[in-house]
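User:
Note these tokens:
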Amino acid sequence: MSAQPEEAPAPPAPAAAAQLLAQLRTDRRADTWVPAFERDWAKALEDSRHTYSLTPLHDVVRTWQARLAAAPAVDAYMDSGRDETGFVDLDDVLGARP
């Protein structure tokens, strides 16, 4: 019997963050994505130091892996020329949020 719940995702590989950063540096969005990843990683590292848990670091890696994986689909959608001018802004529906 495992002490970890079955639904808990497996932790990323030890070198996953370095590999992810290398991929981000070669992406066309590197100018904005690399500093954002480094900021998220630094915050997660600080959180991990305080909590003695690697979970914040794993969460950053998983989040950025998902962003990188979704980028081609987002690009394809944006390049498809779909006109979204008829949509309503969420702020107009929900009103000003604090």
User: Anything to note?
Assistant: The radius of gyration is 18 Å.
